[in-house]
Design brief:
- With 455 residues, the protein is of the alpha/beta class.
- It has two domains: 24-88 and 251-453, Aminopeptidase (3-Layer(aba) Sandwich); 90-248, Glucose Oxidase, domain 1.
- Helices cover 39% and strands 23% of the residues.
- The chain has 15 helices and 17 strands.
- It has helices spanning 2-37, 40-51, 59-73, 134-139, 142-145, 163-170, 172-175, 177-182, 223-235, 287-306, 328-339, 366-373, 397-403, 417-420, 433-453; strands at residues 79-87, 90-91, 95-101, 104-107, 111-112, 123-131, 149-152, 188-192, 218-221, 239-244, 247-248, 253-262, 267-277, 313-320, 343-349, 357-363, 407-412.
- Helix 10 (287-306) links the parallel strand 13 and strand 14.
- The chain is elongated and about 75 Å long.
- The relative contact order is 0.17.
């Protein structure tokens, strides 16, 4: 009996070793195919240079949908379709900011924050009051800030190695400043951009108004302008002129998620989703945020088809619409899955830039995560080593919450992302073709692994 047990154990060890070798070989095939023959960089060039920035609800977003449908069909996907999603429409219009420094007004680069209401095209002129934190502001008497423009001078923390931690720390000043400022009767808000960059690019991004407050205009300035304004506020009296036409339209606009899939051969009712968001802010070209994630998701389908991989489960790539200022696409995808009673076993998102992949984050049960972690040594030859973070994504958040679908997020190197994030400088030229392709490699490898071994 003992010899039989040893024999079974020995056979199991041989089988495991052979399986691991096969996985390793397929990882290499996936990498070679994408690095040598991948089309994601070319796809990104076309998206950025023929469509450009593409805020949801605009003609550019409609053009991006057509681009995405064509690119998805180009992979040889078994099925490609458009999924309706009604999206909010925010209009920027003309905007300007002049700062009175040393007794003279001069125009400075600025961007209104997304979803904000402007000045109705009129000029708001008022003295500036500078504070560094919300606590400092709330400690001021109402008389010190009433009818003033408040400059929230909160700096992105450079001591945090993971820049997404710094973003999470600072983003409340973009998101909530109008609501805090309105409590003391302020007239408008200027914020130091949520930026790691040693430059003067203003960063836009979402903000929101509480139902009970006056909708104050909010503008962001780049770090160099913020440094000059900080110095001026410490040494004298400063004022500003704000002019902005931005506004949120009352009506939603029809739009679409773009979806392509390879049908599973054994259990097609089980679905693995990989995606990025097709919309971007109305500045730059949306290259890192999130053209990169879109073309990487498309690349997964292309690579599977090119390598003749016939997946056991259905592999679905999704280009979500309206991540930046509403998540309508993510909610539409989740609601459709519920209505159709679809069985999703994993949802993966790439929305952290087209930089070198460093890891994969997971939002799933400990048992599911442990099963994937058994294979992390397969990723190490590709410099993918960090599997410690809890990470999914905004667009897959609804399906994760509503259907309890396990979620994962690609984690690229984060050091440069918040130099470009939501700026005029987020353009195709800032993306490296090798780094972009390596991100697609990691996504395809993860999907292959889950397809073979389950979760």
């Amino acid at each position: 009996m003992k010899k039989i047990i040893l024999s079974v154990a020995a056979l199991a060890a041989v089988f495991t070793a052979q399986s691991r070798e096969q996985d390793s070989l397929m990882f290499r095939k996936i990498s070679d195919d994408i690095m040598l023959h991948g089309t994601c960089y070319d796809n990104l060039r076309v998206l950025c240079k023929t469509v450009g920035h593409r805020l949801s609800g605009t003609p550019a977003a409609d053009k991006a949908v057509k681009w995405g449908e064509k690119a998805m069909k180009g992979t040889g996907a078994d099925r490609v379709w458009l999924q309706p999603a009604n999206v909010p429409v925010w209009h920027r219009g003309k905007e300007s900011l002049e700062l009175k420094l040393n007794g003279k007004y001069r125009a400075v680069p600025t961007l209104s924050l997304g979803n904000s209401e402007g000045t109705g095209g009129k000029t708001l002129e008022a003295p500036i009051v500078m504070v560094n934190t919300f606590d400092e502001y709330m400690a001021l008497p109402e008389s010190a800030v009433k009818d003033k423009i408040v400059f929230f001078n909160y700096r992105f923390r450079q001591d945090l190695v993971n820049s997404f931690e710094g973003y999470g720390d600072a983003v409340k000043y973009r998101w909530n400043s109008p609501n805090i400022a309105a409590k003391r009767g302020a007239a408008g808000i200027i914020i130091r951009s949520i930026s790691t960059g040693e430059d003067n690019f203003p960063h836009t991004g979402s903000m929101h108004y509480a139902d009970s407050v006056k909708k104050l205009p909010e503008m962001a300035i780049g770090n160099r302008t913020a440094d000059a304004l900080e110095f001026a506020c410490k040494t004298g009296t400063v004022a500003a002129r704000m002019t902005s036409e931005c506004t949120m339209r009352k009506e939603l606009a029809p739009s679409f998620n773009v979806i392509g899939e390879i049908k599973g051969t054994e259990e097609p009712e089980k679905i693995i989703t990989v995606g990025g968001h097709l919309d971007s802010w109305d500045v730059g070209e949306g290259a890192h945020d999130d053209g990169a994630g879109c073309v990487q998701a498309i690349e997964v389908l292309r690579a599977f088809k090119a390598l003749g991989i016939k997946p056991k489960y259905t592999i679905r790539a999704v280009l979500f619409m309206n991540e930046e200022n509403g998540v309508a696409g993510g909610n539409a995808y989740a609601d459709s899955a519920i209505a159709r009673k679809e069985q999703h076993i994993l949802a993966i998102e790439s929305d952290a830039g087209g930089f070198s992949p460093r890891g994969i984050g997971f939002e799933m049960s400990p048992e599911q995560k442990e099963k994937i972690l058994k294979y992390t040594d397969l990723f190490r030859p590709y410099n993918v080593y960090d599997f410690t973070m809890e990470e999914g994504g905004v667009d897959i958040g609804p399906i994760h919450r509503k259907l309890k679908v396990p979620a994962a997020g690609l984690i690229p190197d984060s050091q440069r992302y918040f130099d470009y994030h939501h700026t005029n400088n987020d353009v195709f030229e800032q993306v490296n073709h090798r780094e972009l392709k390596l991100g697609a490699v990691t996504l395809a490898q993860l999907i292959y692994l889950v397809n073979v071994h389950g979760i």
